[in-house]
Every structure is written in structure tokens, then in C-alpha cells.
Amino acid sequence: xxxxxxxxxxxxxxxxxxxxxxxxxxxxxxxxxxxxxxxxxxxxxxxxxxxxxxxxxxxxxxxxxxxxxxxxxxxxxxxxxxxxxxxxxxxxxxxxxxxxxxxxxxxxxxxxxxxxxxxxxxxxxxxxxxxxxxxxxxxxxxxxxxxxxxxxxxxxxxxxxxxxxxxxxxxxxxxxxxxxxxxxxxxxxxxxxxxxxxxxxxxxxxxxxxxxxxxxxxxxxxxxxxxxxxxxxxxxxxxxxxxxxxxxxxxxxxxxxxxxxxxxxxxxxxxxxxxxxxxxxxxxxxxxxxxxxxxxx
Length: 297
Description:
2 domains; single chain; alpha/beta; 10 helices; elongated; Rossmann fold; 36% helix; Alpha-Beta Plaits
């Protein structure tokens, strides 16, 4: 049984990447086979925390229409069904395809009565991969100028699914927010770690994340990073998480030494800092959750 853990949060800079990389390595030290997936395709950075250089292994490719002008009757049906307006047909002229607007849905392909539409294809970006010891890392990355993040994450997850069965844990790092690209990753989650910090904005964005997770009926764990920067907001965050169904709550106090560890391309769980026990305890919690799930199947 593979347990898929998705780590997400409503805003950037809360420490998702720190938690993802440390928990992945902690699980590895506990004898677990771990695949780490960075699905923040706009700004992947887990490999930086791990001080590795992933190499391209496959493109992230989507359907993009081409038009066979000899078969095309200029009927305009492709234009009518396209939800993005990516195909334009005017005054019986040859269709114009705006590929950057295409969402890859293939409506034009299935609708054309003359079989004039074919798949020209387009690479949105690449999947990169490498290893850090026995930890396998896969990274999704958009090409510059591409804006179809949710499509790229959707294709990335499809590619990753072919590897999931080889691991005990798959840890997926999402982009910040509650948008479609995040939802694409959440769709494969067995459990979610929702990360935030005790600030006014942190509470607002945590509430947005919680609403999304509960709407999707997902099990979730709360992780309050830098929990000691505000006692009052920390108390409010804990109440919010308990009220809305957190399976557990983990807290990592603020410590400047953690930032220095990160800047040295080192991991907290591999340091002498006693706060590493928070992340080790989280990893142990996930191992128990996986074990309980196997016993209940």
C-alpha cells in the first residue's frame, strides 16, 4: 500500500518546502521507500533544499489542434465548441489556432465532421528527476511564457502515477493557494498536511485551505510553522483547526537557526537542532497512519 501525502498551504512562504523535504528524508531514515514530487510547476524549489540537480526525463505534453486545410470546410463548428476561444474561423477563411489559449480538451477534435482536426501537440514543460541517496525526486516545471499550470500538474500527476506503486510514501508539494493547479494534486491525496503560520493572513488563508479540503472530503493534518511568533494568533489558529476537523496538529516554533540550516543546504532532521523532533514525530505519525490503513483493508 502506498500512502500519498499532499502538502499544501494558502499562501507562499509558510514553509511547505521545508516540511516536505524534511519529512521525506525522515521517512527514508525510518526504512520507508519515498518518492518526493514537486508539483509547484511555476516555481519548483524542493531540489534546492535537497541540494540536487534534477535532469529532464520527459516532456509535459498536451493536445493542441492542428488543422488540415484540405479537409477543412470552414464550417466553424470547432470555434463554436471551443471553451477557450482558441480556434477562430471568420468569413470562410482558414481557422486560426491560438495555441497558448488551448486547454487541451479535444472538443474540436471530436466535433469536426470532416476529420480536419489533428493533434499537433505542445510541450508545456518538463518532468525532471534525480535522487538524493535512496530518495527519488520528481519535479514538474513549466516552460517560460507558459501559463497552463493546472494542465501541467494534471499531466505531471498522470506521469507520476506510473511510479507510485514502487514506494511506501509519495509526498507531493503543491503551489501555494487554493486554485486549480493545487486541486489537481489534491485529487490523489490520501491525507493532506495543511501548512500555515500564526498571522492574520495566515489564518485567513488557512481557512480557505480548510474549506477546500473539507469540500473535497479529505483527511488533513494541520502544521503551524513559526508557531511562537504570536501567542494570540497561534491560539486562534489551533481553535480553527480543531473546529474544522484536523486529524492532528503539529507546531514548529520559530528559530532563526532553522533558516541558517536551510541556507547551508542542510535539513533540520539531519541537524543537531532539538526542534527536529517535531518533523520526526510528524513522519512517525504518517507511518502509523499507513500501518493502520493497511490493517483496516
